[in-house]
């Protein structure tokens, strides 16, 4: 019985960890990140607040934040044709998050 419970716990924790590669928020909401990214790329004058964008991904682990932003960038939700790795790194840095080592957009 103890072995059965231990295996269940192991499989449950592995299944939960696999879910971290998905975006837990609606990627359409990330459209608010367009102004932040445009400013970072010097496409707009002024300094738009990062709060609306960063508040969406704060609390997510770095991988989840990266997946969410990848989804938004690749779907062109932000309305700008971009270099995905550079844009992703800029947005994550602006929100005090890190691009996970070796991460590539799915």
From TrEMBL:
<feature type="domain" description="Bifunctional inhibitor/plant lipid transfer protein/seed storage helical">
    <location>
        <begin position="23"/>
        <end position="105"/>
    </location>
</feature>
<dbReference type="InterPro" id="IPR027923">
    <property type="entry name" value="Hydrophob_seed_dom"/>
</dbReference>
<dbReference type="Pfam" id="PF14547">
    <property type="entry name" value="Hydrophob_seed"/>
</dbReference>
<dbReference type="InterPro" id="IPR051636">
    <property type="entry name" value="Plant_LTP/defense-related"/>
</dbReference>
<protein>
    <recommendedName>
        <fullName>Bifunctional inhibitor/plant lipid transfer protein/seed storage helical domain-containing protein</fullName>
    </recommendedName>
</protein>
<dbReference type="InterPro" id="IPR016140">
    <property type="entry name" value="Bifunc_inhib/LTP/seed_store"/>
</dbReference>
<keyword id="KW-0732">Signal</keyword>
<comment type="similarity">
    <text>Belongs to the plant LTP family. PEARLI1 subfamily.</text>
</comment>
<dbReference type="InterPro" id="IPR036312">
    <property type="entry name" value="Bifun_inhib/LTP/seed_sf"/>
</dbReference>
<feature type="signal peptide">
    <location>
        <begin position="1"/>
        <end position="17"/>
    </location>
</feature>
């Amino acid at each position: 019985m103890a072995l059965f419970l231990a295996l269940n716990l192991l499989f449950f924790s592995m299944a939960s960890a696999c879910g971290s590669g998905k975006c837990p928020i609606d990627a359409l909401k990330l459209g608010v990140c367009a102004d932040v990214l445009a400013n970072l790329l010097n496409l707009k004058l002024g300094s738009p607040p990062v709060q609306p964008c960063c508040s969406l991904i704060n609390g997510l682990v770095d991988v989840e934040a990266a997946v969410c932003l990848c989804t938004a960038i690749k779907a062109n939700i932000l309305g700008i044709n971009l270099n995905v790795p550079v844009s992703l790194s800029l947005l994550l840095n602006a929100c005090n998050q890190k691009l996970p080592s070796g991460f590539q957009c799915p």
